[in-house]
Amino acid sequence: MPKRLIGLVLVLPALAVILLLFIVPLAASVVGAFEEKNSYGLGNFTKAFELYRSDVMFTVMIVSLSTVLIGLFSIAIGGYLTLGENPRAVAILRWLYRWPMFIPFIVVGQVLRTFLAKNGLMNNMLVGAGIITPLQAASFLDWRGIVIAFVWKQTPFVTLLVAGAMASVDRGTIEAARNLGASRLRILLEILVPQVTTTLMVGLVLSFVTMMSVLSVPLMINAQSPTMITADIAFRINAYGDYGVANALGLISLAVTACVAWFYLRHSMKERA
Amino acid sequence: MSTAAIPETNAPGFRLDLWWIPRAIVLGLIAFAIFGPLTNLLLWTVAEKWYFPHTLPLEYGFSYWGRVFSPRGNAMESLTNSILVASLTVVVSLALAIPAGYALARLRLPFRAAILFAFLIPQAFPNLPVYVNIARLFYEIGLNGTIAGVVLVHATHGLVYAVWIATAAFAAVDAELEQAARSIGAGALRAFREVTLPLAAPGLLASAIFVFLESLDEFTGSYFVGAPDVNMLPLLLYTAGAGGNYQVASITALLLLIPSVGFMLVVERFLKSDVLSKVGH
Amino acid sequence: MKRLLQAMLVLGLAASPANAAELTVITAGDQNMVDYINEYLAPLFEEQNPGNTVRAVGTGPGDAGSQKILERFEAQKKAGAEKWDTDVAVVHEKFAGPMIEGGYLEAYRDRIATGKMVTRANADMALGAKVTGYVMPMFNSQTAIAYNPALVSNPPKSYEALAAWAKEHPKQFGYNGIKGGASGVSFVMGWIYAFGDDADKLMNGPFDKAETAKWDSAFASLGEFTQNATLTPGNAGTLDLLSRGEIAMGPVWVDMFYSWQANGQLPPDFKLFLPAPGMPGQPMHYVIPANAPNKELAEKFVELATSPKVQAEGIVKRFNWYPGIDAEHVKAELDEATWNKLFVDITPEDLAKYGKPFPIAPYNNAILEAYERQATN
């Protein structure tokens, strides 16, 4: 059997599940996005842009910012787990960082809403400890709250992947660099990170996509306008029963992720070539 | 007292002690960031009364545990279903993703990028408008209200993690190792099983954790395809959480922590023994 | 494709068969709706109908919860399923019309004994759609303004006074816009009733597109008002901020307000009032799907649930909800003190005067969309 065919046979079962159980049902939604009263057209997209342009921008910015922060934190934590010299500190960090991963998004929303509010637990603790005065207490329940929620929940996910990849980098290279007097920061940035780029990017793309489709966090944390695309989709459906604009927004969201995925896939293609 | 202890430690040990100051500060901040919100969750599970201006609950108790675990509430049955479905979803997703990931990483495939992107779509298109169609499809083929149906729905969402991470994991394994095994006479399958798969195992197991968590937290598919015959814990979590019933939502989330952390520990054990077993070779 | 999927199923996993001997009740709304059915109604029903069991499934609060029930029916209808998986559903008023239009519901009210005990207009018309015969109200809910007496000793009694109060106390009034649940929507509708052109026309129709052009000044003032207000995340978010003392006042669902108080999430001294010229309320309706597997049993269930005894014991006494069937039937089952507990904050006269229905569907949508365009951008 030619190699290409073997490859296709191996991919086919997984692909079939996605195609039959998601993409076929999705097709109706895609068509729906272009349906107007009695014809096909771009009316839903025009309306989506007219009403929700700022929300689309807001979503992209929130999610991008979160992705960058998640990337930085996961490199820092993963780097320390790999290069840290004090076994006890490494063990503590390893034990610490993973917990948020296990909390479902809807609970993350609830927990951070009551934690980050102006008179929430965080400010109460800080005031109680004398770190801030009650007058300095501020609410983080706006775009910052969403970013905090995303970073809180998704950093462990990417860190787990990145730390795993870093651990499998050849220790010999690291030791050699260390013996030559390279600082740990330099080793992290010049040896470890380049070697785990693929894993890091996979983790970040997956995080990006996940955050784009989360509904509960924007609904429970951020009330202001602009809000995130998912909240608008829910609103279009629940308030108006308007699937047309909802599907158009869904396609816009898909297009945004497609750009990010394309960016990664092109990078990984170059790597393979 | 402490002066007596210091001479015992050698010079580098003493230096390390000083390093504990920044370390403790950073670790303390991380602990605050992580456990602050979690404390909130834990407090709500036992709070009977809690409102401003009280920093801590006014009354503690377990009456909401009684509500969650009331005989008609089906919490235990839902938890069992959730664990069963999550485990099966992991099995199905990995069984599908390992060959797919291997092919995507190693073999020259036409439309490779398009295929990888296809797996991303269930996660990338906000699901709300699509689920009517999915539910309809599942009613048509008689999968509604079955464990199998829920597993398949969860697998469509879990596959993105499984396939993408498996692809990255296989790509990270040096292809020459496999070729070396082939050249000393191992068959393709054997070379894969004994060389490539163990090396990619950490990544695959990490993806298993994500698939497990994704399945455990999934609501929409569980509702449309599972309920009312197969009830899952997120249904309770969602109703309570979205309605602002903090106690019930927190208790449910705590319940979900048990299988999540348990699964994680099992996977870690796997990982360690696996990594250890390779040391001797 | 069908065959392939079935083959996959056989290959992979064994299907667990559906157990059809139970009565399935799907309910939108908060967790306490599920608890109400599970802990109160179901045991009672099972006692009266030995051998049968009831199971309850919750779909979540707000319009989203009812929308999920609608979608469930739509999916089964389109799939051509003969026996559906739901016997009784509890949905928000707004979704009764679309469900009838889709042909998902059974007209059963005339067949049950309690059917005659409902004469209130909202059991016949739901946002302008005729629903006579298809629905039985479970309870009536009302939005009102909740306030913290420690911060507001003398609450404003009308929308106008409220607007003035909010101007004097910036950020002390909080509401959840229109995307976070119906308590905010209701506040906006009330605003248009107060400052728009013709409230009666909005509530009773007929729809006239020219009417929608008359709200500009109302929305302009609402936009200005919103600048001075705090936007809260959702129905629960308003209650949350109230309970934290971050806002002093905000629109809430009366039933939700009481359940938060019962849950110890809200101080017991918080109060409610209904501002003039009124705010909307809506009933939750029991409906029976056209293809319900156990129709007779389902009718019996609704009959029990809307009987004066259950309405008195369950709806009024346990939850402090306004009854679904006419008050005279329920009042007879209760002592004076329990009945009056319903009206501690809001008097029956206020309720009669200021408890309004939502606008009919086309106006409802037009107001929401106008809000999106004008009040927030």
UniProtKB/TrEMBL annotation, chain A:
Residue intervals passing through the bilayer: 56-83, 95-116, 143-166, 187-209, 245-265
Which InterPro entries does the record match to this protein? Answer: MetI-like, MetI-like_sf
- Tell whether Ribonucleoprotein is among the UniProt keywords: no
User: Which GO biological-process labels does this protein carry?
Assistant: transmembrane transport
GO cellular component terms given for this protein: plasma membrane
Is Zinc one of the keywords UniProt gives this record? no
**UniProt keyword list:** Cell membrane, Membrane, Transmembrane, Transmembrane helix, Transport
Domain of life according to the entry? Bacteria
Checking Pfam families in the record gives:
BPD_transp_1 (PF00528)
**How does the protein's chain sit in the membrane according to the entry?**
Multi-pass membrane protein
Q: Where is the ABC transmembrane type-1 domain?
A: 56-264
* Principal subcellular localisation of the protein: membrane
Compartment(s)? Cell membrane
Q: Which family does it belong to?
A: Belongs to the binding-protein-dependent transport system permease family. CysTW subfamily.
**Protein name (record):** ABC transporter permease
UniProtKB/TrEMBL annotation, chain B:
A single GO cellular-component term on record:
plasma membrane
Q: Give me any GO biological process, just one.
A: transmembrane transport
Q: Where is the ABC transmembrane type-1 domain?
A: 79-267
- UniProt keyword Transcription regulation present: no
What topology does the record note for this protein and the membrane? Answer: Multi-pass membrane protein
SUPFAM superfamilies associated with the record: MetI-like
Where is this chain's protein located in or outside the cell? Answer: Cell inner membrane; Cell membrane
Q: For this UniProt record, give its keywords in alphabetical order, as a comma-separated list.
A: Cell inner membrane, Cell membrane, Membrane, Transmembrane, Transmembrane helix, Transport
Task: List, alphabetically, the InterPro entries matched.
Answer: MetI-like (IPR000515), MetI-like_sf (IPR035906)
Q: Where are the transmembrane segments?
A: 24-47, 83-104, 116-139, 151-173, 194-213, 246-267
Q: So which domain of life are we looking at?
A: Bacteria
The record's similarity note reads: Belongs to the binding-protein-dependent transport system permease family.
Q: What is this protein called?
A: Spermidine/putrescine ABC transporter permease
Species for this entry: Paramesorhizobium deserti
From TrEMBL, chain C:
**Keyword terms:** Periplasm, Signal
Q: What's the short name of a Pfam family annotated to this entry?
A: SBP_bac_8
Superkingdom is: Bacteria
Keyword ATP-binding in the entry? The reply is no
Q: Does the keyword Ribosomal protein apply?
A: no
Signal peptide limits: 1-20
InterPro entries registered for this protein in UniProt: SBP
**Protein name per UniProt:** ABC transporter substrate-binding protein
Question: What is the species listed in this Swiss-Prot or TrEMBL entry?
Answer: Paramesorhizobium deserti
